[in-house]
């Protein structure tokens, strides 16, 4: 049995400020750092020792992974970063206050942009404050100007197939420290969650989701390591049933 743990980054500064973050490289809050360390403690208690950690190129995910590994006493685990594990690109919503955006466009429209499977927000205008084209991490890459969860999955899945799945098939346990939507994309892929039900899947910050996989990478069990924090959310088994 191979084990995979998905770890969403701890609370970020823009999580705290209720802003659409996407690809903006904001850091963790003190609470986010504490969540990451607590995640590491839970990983250690579960006896989980990954052969490798995959993460995005954004500091809130990278720092969450690093803090968790340190807290778990797993300082020598190799780390692989890739932009394809980045958070969903929020397009023209990037940087906006979520409550103010709902007041301007209506809560129903914002809910469609945020939670639907295949409707992206308006694209990000070029040349603005959050234009990522000149960012050296993305030079030479075909990066989006907005994304839905569907198009997020479209970039995550090839990376999963080429880089992550082979490690799991080789019998290695893997930790992925990433973001709410890139991890939701992986959950949709692994559990074949229908398009109309993935909206109900929420990955809590800093709470490791352990998934046991068979030889064909089919899930046979899934649980949040901090079950108390997961009780307010739909259990993963209920969502995928």
TrEMBL record:
Q: Which residues constitute the catalytic centre?
A: 9 (tele-phosphohistidine intermediate), 87 (proton donor/acceptor)
What does the entry give for GO biological process?
gluconeogenesis; glycolytic process
Q: Does the keyword Translocase apply?
A: no
**Coiled-coil regions listed:** none
Q: Which residues bind substrate?
A: 8-15, 21-22, 60, 87-90, 98, 114-115, 180-181
The source's domain of life comes to Bacteria
Enzyme superclass (EC): isomerase
Q: Which SUPFAM superfamilies match?
A: Phosphoglycerate mutase-like
Residues the record annotates as the site (Transition state stabilizer) are: 179
**Protein EC:** 5.4.2.11
Which GO terms fall under molecular function for this chain's record?
phosphoglycerate mutase activity
Which controlled-vocabulary keywords does the entry list? Gluconeogenesis, Glycolysis, Isomerase
CDD domains per UniProt: HP_PGM_like (cd07067)
Q: Spell out the InterPro entries in the cross-references.
A: His_Pase_superF_clade-1, His_PPase_superfam, PG/BPGM_mutase_AS, Phosphogly_mut1
**What Pfam families does the entry give?**
His_Phos_1
Q: In which pathway does it act?
A: Carbohydrate degradation; glycolysis; pyruvate from D-glyceraldehyde 3-phosphate: step 3/5
Catalytic activity line of the entry: (2R)-2-phosphoglycerate = (2R)-3-phosphoglycerate
Q: How does it assemble?
A: Homodimer.
**Family, per entry:** Belongs to the phosphoglycerate mutase family. BPG-dependent PGAM subfamily.
Q: What HAMAP family does UniProt report for this protein, alphabetically?
A: PGAM_GpmA (MF_01039)
Q: What does this protein do?
A: Catalyzes the interconversion of 2-phosphoglycerate and 3-phosphoglycerate.
Recorded protein name is 2,3-bisphosphoglycerate-dependent phosphoglycerate mutase
Q: What is the lineage of its organism?
A: Bacteria, Pseudomonadati, Pseudomonadota, Alphaproteobacteria, Caulobacterales
């Amino acid at each position: 049995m191979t084990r995979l743990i998905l770890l969403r980054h701890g609370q970020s500064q823009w999580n705290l400020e209720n802003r659409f973050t996407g690809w903006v490289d904001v850091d963790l809050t003190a609470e986010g750092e504490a969540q990451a360390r607590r995640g590491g403690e839970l990983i250690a208690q579960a006896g989980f020792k990954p052969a490798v950690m995959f993460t995005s190129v954004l500091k809130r995910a990278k720092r969450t992974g690093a803090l968790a590994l340190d807290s778990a006493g797993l300082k020598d685990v190799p780390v692989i970063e890739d932009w394809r594990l980045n958070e969903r690109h929020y397009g023209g919503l990037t940087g906006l206050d979520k409550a103010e955006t709902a007041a301007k466009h209506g809560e129903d429209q914002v809910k469609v942009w945020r939670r639907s499977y295949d409707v992206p927000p308006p694209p990000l205008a070029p040349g603005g404050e959050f234009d990522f084209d000149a960012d050296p991490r993305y030079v030479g890459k075909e990066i989006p100007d907005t994304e839905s969860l569907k198009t997020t999955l479209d970039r995550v899945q090839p990376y999963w197939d080429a880089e992550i799945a082979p490690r799991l098939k080789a019998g290695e346990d893997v930790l992925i420290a990433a973001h709410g939507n890139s991890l939701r994309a992986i959950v949709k892929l692994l559990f074949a969650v229908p398009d109309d039900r993935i909206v109900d899947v929420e990955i809590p910050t800093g709470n490791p989701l352990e998934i046991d996989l068979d030889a064909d990478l089919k899930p046979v069990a899934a649980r949040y390591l901090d079950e108390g924090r997961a009780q307010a959310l739909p259990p993963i088994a209920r969502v995928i049933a």
